[in-house]
Amino acid sequence: MQFSANKKLLLRILADGKFHSGTELAEQIGLSRSAIWKQLNSLEEQGIAISAVNGKGYRLHTALELLDKSLIYSLLNTKTRQCLAELEIHDQIDSTNRYLVALCNARPETSAVCCLAEQQTAGKGRRGKQWVSPFGSNIYASIAWQFQGGPSSLSSLSLAIGVAVINALKIHGIHDAGLKWPNDIYWQQRKLGGILVEVSGESDGPCHAVIGLGLNLYLAEQDGAQIQQDWVDINEILGNSHKLSRNQLLATLLEQLIAVTHHYTPAAFAQYRDQWRQFDCMQGQQVSLFMGNTKIDGTVMGINDAGLLLLQTETGQIQSFASGEVSFRRL
Questions:
Q1: DSSP of 209-228, one letter per residue?
Q2: Do 202 and 320 reside in the same domain of the chain?
Q3: Out of 30, 150, 152, 190, which could bridge 232 as a Cys pair, Cβ 3.0 to 4.6 Å?
Q4: CATH code (residue 309)
Q5: Whether residue 311 sits in one domain with residue 192
Q6: Model pLDDT, residue 221
Q7: Which parts of this chain does the entry mark as a DNA-binding region (predicted)?
Q8: What is the pLDDT of residues 164-173, one digit of tens each?
Q9: Which residues are annotated as a binding site for biotin?
Q10: Is the pLDDT of residue 126 over 60?
Q11: What's the gap between Cα 120 and its chain centre?
């Protein structure tokens, strides 16, 4: 869903986090004060927190950097701009992944299309878990890409994507971020983000991969309270003295992600395997692996050359796993 032109203009004015009187807003947007009040109520109904103080006016609880398509394009390197067929920005959407999956089904030729959103109303992680997605404060991005091979050729793609995300974070001074197999981004044992790759197509190819990324840039306390695990955001990692631009971070992420997808083949994972092992934050950790109703406890021994999880079970045997949900064990 896209906001009306008046609602977008109102948001841009309020995005600085400062107070603006009703009269000032009405004059700048060209609406009556009553119409401004209705627009403000509409924003609040969509989860955007607004303070109203007599004699001062209205302001957002937290200043926002809204997504800017022209700015993001200007920050991309030439190679990425040439590879990217389409960049869409939605004010509100149920799920960036769901949108692109539907687009690929409707237009089989779809490739190199990126969908960004200010807010998701039904963002999802692995196993259908909800992804908390407040307005205008985090990264909600998906890329649709067509590959000539079948779905089995992309079995390690999510691991390569994880490497790309870590490299993008390092460019912006976010160090000590790690990867939790198969597709979570962690920082000091707390979740920073997640990757969701959904693949569809013929067994012999071609196929589509929709690569979704959710990354916590800033999470208000009330939003974080909805998350059922330890979490962290980039704002906490970098501290209040260093504010990272959402648009700049998105441009860097797109450059790194498209560099992976543009040339990815089954053999390409070998280029990322050593880096993935370097970023592995689970090596030597006691974990529980869940596969349906089955739970297996053990110690993570890393990944094999194909990207499968190596787990030393309590019997001492090392087994490899292609899928499953891994949780750190509290000892």
A1: EEEEEEE-S---HHHHTT-S
A2: no
A3: 190
A4: 2.30.30.100
A5: no
A6: 74
A7: 22-41
A8: 999 999 999 9
A9: 95-97, 120, 191
A10: no
A11: 11
- For residue 329, indicate whether it is catalytic: yes
Nearest to 194 by CA among 97, 100, 260, 284: 97
250-295, pLDDT tens digit by residue?
Answer: 999 999 999 999 989 888 999 999 999 999 999 999 999 999 889 9
Residues 32 and 122 in one domain: no
Q: State the pTM of this model.
A: 0.92
Provide DSSP, 149-167.
S-GGGGTTHHHHHHHHHHH
Same domain, 152 and 197: yes
Residues 44 and 191 in one domain: no
**Residue 40: which CATH number?**
1.10.10.10
pLDDT in tens, 296-320: 999 999 999 999 999 999 899 999 9
Domain housing 55:
5-60
* Distance, CA of 46 to chain centre: 20
Tell me how many domains the chain contains.
3
Residues 45 and 111 placed together within one structural domain of the fold:
no
Token pair listed for 90: 């939605």
191 in catalytic set: yes
If asked whether residues 145 and 216 sit together in one domain, one would say yes
Binding-site residue ranges: 95-97, 120, 191
Annotated active-site residue in 18, 56, 79, 329: 329
The residue from 126, 129, 170, 243 that is catalytic is 126
Active-site residue (options: 59, 98, 124, 191):
191
